[in-house]
Design the sequence.
């Protein structure tokens, strides 16, 4: 059947889970028309609709990723918007917030406009750019945040540079709050991490690699919570890695601080022990930490201290990673495996049910940034994933869609698989491959 | 314990990969090379083979010892040091090594500032790779020659009390020695300032004892290994000054008296006289520093001979 953007969509037979409204129908139906969810289709629409029988699958809102990089502009060897957004769809993500540390940095309206043009041409999912908080994410002078907001940024952040000066952070928060923009903060006190390669602990000592102590993250998580109280601005704490950070956020939330937090799927699944063979694909910032941290992060995700799971997709080229450990850049390509990694850590290991996991991938992140996404609400954007919770699969470099091959889970048998991803009611990927 | 009868490893990248039986097998090989250390007594076991010393970090002592070891076995030796190397032109380590490999080399001895570099190269190449120090990770031949020297003095390593004193945090010598000595059954104590001997070392090496009081660390020890205080490596935050270090942890005659009467004093060199050790101790009767240097040649001969011999051709 020929389908176009006007072809209505009718998915039936799936178990429909929408955590945003507490919906869980054992055999539900979902309809979409003209890119949005509708409560029913007319007889004539039914007759021409694309009908999908999804018996045995889970239907959920498309996932929302708050921490991702797509290479362009400037780092096209690592990733492209075309390949990266297909990878996002293959992983179930239909909205992705991209970090502003491209080249040139997204600290000006022109770069945001360029990103939007590239996305109009190439993107398969909704790409929501973040702008920098300071010029060149150097932590010195404020970026033109108001103009960036007008140009379409959904948040501001200095990403992995972090803002090292508390006075600048305070003013940036106050200024961003005026435009109702959430500040995303990568929490790293760089004075404590000079030359750091991995988590500071028994493994860094054995491997002779410079350690990145938990305290370097926890200190900034603490100061952010204090500054959130001072400024009443909203701060979203990016990719927490330390159990101590989670505890600080728990206390801050109990005291009504306006903070939210995320954790990357890999940090839910792996620990620093995985670095025993100097695998540069697992060189991440923040670093993988110890089992006690992993367990604390899982507990914080389950009890709501942590609002969202992110992919933290930070692709690097094969050449960049094929070198001595301390010369390799930080980051891994994770969009296509994030859901399965989180599923294994949370659901398969019995810490929580699929509904909770889906909440942290859909309305959890959407609410943290106030995004119109992550829900099956009638009238909302018809972004959908179909999940096969019983499938197992092995990611391989040959079939993954990301331009970067540095996915650290290659060859591992993963549980649960994204079967189909729809953006605006239109099928984008099926079984990890582009629909056409 | 079964006696090791053969050697199968093409690389020596760390003590971590070696079993006790392998270490003892290597020592027996080194014993056989001791007579060859006399002037005019070279061997020809590696005649026609070529060893490249790829030193990407400054070193005189270790590089010279490897050169002499290879020459004593009859091998040809080419040494590349960091300023002459093409790595400064942006070539990757893999490319440099593949180029050397393409020229028909049998073994690469590498010193590199990056931890894990030797293991990386060993996986990338089908010729022997010997680690002459990789960042703060391992310096396996130093640990082997140290244990070999202890064994020569005491006839064993098992059960001896050995204290490693100084900068453990940044020291590859310390890491390899901790692994080697504990594998051979010694009781290892780590001592020095808390900033350079963090308590978390106990998590990494559960068999060791960690002591910040020098008298406790030295009392009853059979051997003390002093580590070079590498002022070029430590940032200023790890201890106040060399003078402060010496006053707290420097080994002088008075403190050496806390050791067992027959105890030995070791140092991997080069010595900072007056910093980690006073001359009266470095040159005194307890010192085995020059024996270490001499044994280093025999041990490295054994390493080169065994690793290159493990490759079928």
Sequence:
């Amino acid at each position: 059947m020929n389908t176009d953007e006007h072809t209505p969509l009718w998915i039936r037979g799936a178990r429909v889970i929408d955590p945003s409204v507490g919906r869980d129908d054992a055999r539900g139906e979902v309809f979409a028309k003209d890119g949005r969810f509708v409560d029913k289709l007319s007889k004539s629409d039914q007759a021409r609709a694309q009908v999908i029988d999804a018996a045995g699958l889970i239907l959920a809102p498309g996932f929302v990723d708050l921490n991702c990089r797509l290479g362009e502009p400037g780092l096209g060897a690592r990733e492209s918007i075309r390949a990266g957004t297909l990878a996002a769809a293959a992983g179930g993500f239909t909205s992705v917030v991209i970090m502003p540390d491209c080249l040139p940095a997204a600290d000006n309206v022109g770069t945001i406009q360029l990103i939007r043009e590239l996305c109009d041409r190439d993107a398969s999912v909704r790409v929501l750019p973040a702008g920098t908080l300071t010029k060149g994410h150097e932590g010195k002078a404020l970026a033109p945040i108001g103009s960036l907001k007008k140009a379409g940024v959904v948040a501001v952040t200095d990403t992995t540079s972090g803002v090292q000066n508390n006075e600048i952070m305070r003013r940036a928060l106050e200024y961003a709050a005026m435009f109702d923009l959430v500040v995303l903060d990568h929490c790293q006190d760089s004075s404590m991490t000079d030359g750091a390669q991995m988590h500071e602990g028994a493994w860094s000592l054995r491997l002779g690699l410079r350690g990145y102590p938990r305290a370097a993250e926890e200190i900034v998580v603490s100061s952010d919570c204090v500054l959130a109280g001072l400024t009443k601005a909203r701060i979203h704490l990016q990719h927490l890695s330390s159990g101590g950070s989670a505890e600080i956020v728990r206390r801050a939330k109990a005291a009504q601080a306006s903070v939210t937090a995320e954790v990357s799927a890999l940090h839910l699944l792996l620990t620093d022990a995985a670095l025993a063979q100097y695998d540069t694909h697992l060189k991440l910032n923040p670093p993988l930490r110890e089992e006690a941290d992993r367990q604390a992060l899982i507990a914080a995700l389950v009890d709501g201290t942590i609002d969202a799971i992110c992919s933290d997709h930070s692709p690097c080229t094969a050449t960049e990673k094929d070198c001595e450990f301390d010369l390799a850049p930080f980051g891994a390509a994770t969009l296509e495996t994030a859901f399965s990694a989180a599923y294994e850590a949370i659901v398969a290991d019995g810490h929580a049910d699929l509904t909770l996991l889906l909440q942290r991938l859909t309305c959890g992140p959407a609410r943290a940034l106030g995004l119109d996404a992550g829900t099956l609400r009638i009238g909302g954007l018809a972004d959908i994933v179909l999940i096969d919770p019983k499938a197992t699969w092995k990611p391989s470099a040959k079939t993954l869609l990301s331009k970067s091959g540095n996915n650290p889970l290659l060859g591992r048998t993963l549980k649960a698989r994204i079967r189909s991803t729809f953006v605006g009611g239109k099928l984008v990927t099926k079984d990890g491959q582009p629909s056409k | 314990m079964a006696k090791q009868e053969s050697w199968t490893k093409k690389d020596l990248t760390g003590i971590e990969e070696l079993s006790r039986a392998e270490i003892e097998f290597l020592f027996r090989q080194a014993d056989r090379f001791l007579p060859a250390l006399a002037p005019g007594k070279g061997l020809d076991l590696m005649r026609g083979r070529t060893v490249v010393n790829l030193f990407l970090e400054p070193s005189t002592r270790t590089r010279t010892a490897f050169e002499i070891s290879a020459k004593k076995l009859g091998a040809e030796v080419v040494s590349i040091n960091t300023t002459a190397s093409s790595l400064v032109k942006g070539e990757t380590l893999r490319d440099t090594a593949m180029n050397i490999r393409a020229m028909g080399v049998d073994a690469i001895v590498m010193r590199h500032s990056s931890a894990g570099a030797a293991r990386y190269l060993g996986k990338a190449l089908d010729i022997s790779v010997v680690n002459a120090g990789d960042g703060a990770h391992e310096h396996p031949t130093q640990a082997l020659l140290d244990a070999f020297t202890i064994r020569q003095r005491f006839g064993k390593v098992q059960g001896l009390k050995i204290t490693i004193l100084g900068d453990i945090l940044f020291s590859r010598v310390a890491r390899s020695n901790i692994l080697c000595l504990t594998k051979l059954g010694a009781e290892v104590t780590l001592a020095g300032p808390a900033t350079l001997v963090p308590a978390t070392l106990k998590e990494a090496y559960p068999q060791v004892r960690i002591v910040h009081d020098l008298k406790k660390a030295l009392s009853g020890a059979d051997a003390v290994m002093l580590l070079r205080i590498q002022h070029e490596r430590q940032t200023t935050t790890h201890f106040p000054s060399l003078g402060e270090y010496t006053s707290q942890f420097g080994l002088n005659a008075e403190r050496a008296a806390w050791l067992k009467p027959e105890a030995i004093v070791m140092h991997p060199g080069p010595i900072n006289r007056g910093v980690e050790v006073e001359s009266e101790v470095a040159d005194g009767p307890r010192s085995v520093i020059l024996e270490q240097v001499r044994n280093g040649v025999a041990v490295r001969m054994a390493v080169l001979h065994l690793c290159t011999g493990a490759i079928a051709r």
